[in-house]
Amino acid sequence: SVKHEQLVQDINRSNKSLRGKVEDIIDYIESDEQQLLQKESLNALHNCEPGQELCFMFKQHKMNDETLSSAYKRIEACLKDELRPLMGVELQPFGSTVSGLALKGSDIDLHIKLLNNTRTTKNSTKQAFNRLEIILQRSNNFNEVIPIRNARVPIIKCKH
């Protein structure tokens, strides 16, 4: 395609670093994949039974149960390993992971319950939150660790 040829010429001509060239290629791939997905979705929507459009779109973008289960198990195993110093945690999934409404690219929501934390004062909760954050920050398995302390329920967002 013309777009592809232009990308190749731009990459070959530019003085960009290797990283910059790789980022350009990734942007190209992602945009082409998105365009293909949009075309497939539009074509399928036109062939849908009237009134079934929302159901179809959900099925089209829903995360496969097997993929979701596999991703959850990998994250659970990593978290349990990383949180071993806390001596006893229970991971409880919630949200779209449990409800079956997870879409492709959805996050996985987990509640981390500390089993040996008998006293739950505001201070002990804050200390536990800080320990969790430090463990995740130091981990090689998790990145982009963002603590959100001021939420009604404190949250630590991260990527695996």
UniProtKB/TrEMBL annotation:
Residues 59-160 form the Poly(A) RNA polymerase mitochondrial-like central palm domain. GO terms for biological process: RNA 3'-end processing. GO terms for molecular function: RNA uridylyltransferase activity. It holds the Pfam family MTPAP-like_central. It comes from the Eukaryota. InterPro entries: MTPAP-like_central, NT_sf. This is Poly(A) RNA polymerase mitochondrial-like central palm domain-containing protein. It comes from Bactrocera dorsalis.
